[in-house]
Structure of DNA ligase:
Amino acid sequence: MASSSSSSSTEHTKFSILASLFNWISKTKTSSRKRSKFRKFIDTFCSPSDYFSAVRLILPNLDRERGTYGLKESVLSVSLIEALGMSRDSPDAFKLINWRKGGANATGANAGNFSLVASEVLQRRQGTTSGGLTIGELNGLLDKLASSENRGEKTSVLAALINKTNTQEMMWIIMIILKDLKLGISEKSIFHEFHPDAEDLFNVTCDLKLVCEKLRDRNQRHKRQDIEVGKAVRPQLAMRVSDAHAAWKKLHGKEVVVECKFDGDRIQIHKNGANVHYFSRNFLDHSEYAHGMSDIIVQNVLDERCILDGEMLVWDTSLNRFAEFGSNQEIANAARDGLDSDRQLCYVAFDILYVGDTSVIHQTLKERHELLRKVVKPVKGRLEILVPNGGLNAHRLPGEPYSSLIAYNMDDVEKFFKEAIENRDEGIVLKDLGSKWEPSDRSGKWLKLKPEYVRAGSDLDALIIGGYYGSGRRGGEVAQFLVGLAERPAPNTYPRRFISFCRVGNGLSDEELDTVVSKLKPYFRKNEYPKKSPPSFYQVTNNSKERPDVWIENPDKSIILSITSDIRTISSVVFSAPYSLRFPRIDRVRYDKPWHECLDVQSFIELVHSSNGTTQNGKGYGDVQTSKPTHVKSSWKGEKKRVSVVPSHLIQTDISDIKGETLIFSNVMFYFVNVPPTNSLESLHKMVAENGGTFSMNLNNSVTHCIAAESKGIKYQAAKLHGDIIHYSWVLDCCLQKKLLPLQPKYFVFLSDGSKKKLQEEIDEFSDSYYLDLDLSDINQLLSNINTSEDAKAIDYFKKKYCPEKKWSLFHGCCVYFHISRESLTPDWESLLGLAFRRLKLEIFMGGGKVSNNIAHATHLVVLIVPASDVDFGSLVKRNIFS
């Protein structure tokens, strides 16, 4: 129980006491002493009726009563400069803005620690005597800081805080604002010391204030609380395993479901009638999803009160598949702004936690799957469920991998994992179907297996072209690197240009990193963007996420790093290379290689294109678990330097376990020029084999049918020399209908001259038949074969995006002809009508329309006449057209 001295309100306790506690805890090494000191503070200086006022300052990252401050280090540094009335050009202002940088002209020993750099600046402007700020006053000012809508308001709050504190107190307030106190004591330890049931209660409510109010007496145990609709719950977590064997061993004897691990935002949907909340794993409510999803949820989640656990993804309607991770916010904003797009938000529910008035987390996963089927009505591409029977599996085409299935042995797990990798999924999750749902549990009821846990992508030798200063213990020194790939040079010459590729920092020990930095330090050149351009050797985007703190002044002074990563690549916007890496890390430093032998960007693109969008070196699952990743070398200097991996397009697909279903493709040999994102090459090969056909890994005279998804690439150009090229949809349609369909013109991507002569009286230049009827899918297919110079949908999208107000596009698509009736006009009326004409002409132009001098080209006729005049529009139109 609290002592008598705690009878006064916590709000009246001086913040200087809490700051002293922070100082003591941060300097103490023993965890038990840290916990006991925290307990003593709570008992001595806090009132049981108001523990929250203090605890929210001790655990600022868990406080959801207060909104976000919108102040990261870069904005906070500028706000502090303004609050202190400093010149932007002063040495102290330079220190704050360049808080990561070290050295004599920068922030010195405290580099990389913003709060220490700030306290160094504040020390010369604040006294050592406390200003008497109380915990209550501090919370009031922090509330005001969070609710401030512009930097000026935030600056005035910071100025008030500076006036009421000393340097030490202000340093801790800055750390509270940044939500990182660096006390060296875990959230779990603080919860346990506060009350034995505090962590459990927080896990099911994510409500720090509720925890403080319900658990006032540490000696009184709290009955375990169940989850509630509208209160975020900490998610069930999956334990990481190294391979399929370890996963199966962990769940041996259990009934196991294995699921695709989708690469999206883990979101809990709480539905309460028409009110829908979208809670992230950090229990933030992502209201931006409401415009794109709430109507779908309200209409298709059949119970009024419900909690779903799942993944928020983006569905691409043009490709009929999920888009790669990273576009959720963009699509949510487009839905909010009412913009049309081929992409839309899609929620995949894999668990259900609450139905009606009852929590169901105590039921088995198998039982919860049945509830999920009953409660959620799937809508393709908008709302899906992930269950072993039905759900997303109902949409799969022949040859495509399952999204979820029951695994009966380790071979099932390995096969499912292999298919997930080939489909470029994030990985797989194995779950015990007999398990209950436990908030924040990672005990092994759920297991996750990702490609990078088993095997990395090929090692890529990239050149360091820039560096980024670190923070914390790496403050003041370069801790990460911007690496680039060479632009392929002419034979027997060195590369002269390097393309920015990715940012990497993990993988080296402190000693190895220090060695690299010390070797490069003499050649660092400060990045002074936008005053000075990057060195001419480097092709960069100058994106804020790419922009390094220093450049390597000349590539011949640099060092090659061998980079490994998740095998999946991502389309790059931040960097100049067309693809970048997910979770890159340094495998080793290549001191043995000269700068000019780094990988060239063309070889990297070839690797990606030949490996279904990955950096995988072509070996099958299980073949590389004990080996080092294969290196991909530059091809700049003759044949010896070409890519040293065997690309997957040259590796024969294993069809030994394929059982034949039909013989529709007997006597047919396929060669796949390229494949769509929705199907892997292997899945199409297996589809062909299942239906009696054969396939070739290279283009030769035995090939009877060349198949392609798009009319692009070197392989496509080569296939055109061979003969006709058929769209992959013909293969899918044949398999679906279980018969060999005639090759109608709509199925051709390219026609050879011989075929054109045979069909020239039946089809037009785009392979559209003059005689056969087309359905909507046929028209879409024909249009996709046409290379258009401009994308009308994209134009419409950007017109709406950048001209959101209707007045700017009011006359879009209109062409107006103005007729001024000049019969019997006085000079005054003629002047007035002339002014009206010029004003209306400008209105049309401002609204996106056109004005024509010829009525025959116009969509609209506007007549300017004096009041009470009559006009015969019929004769007017005829007269103008014929004249």
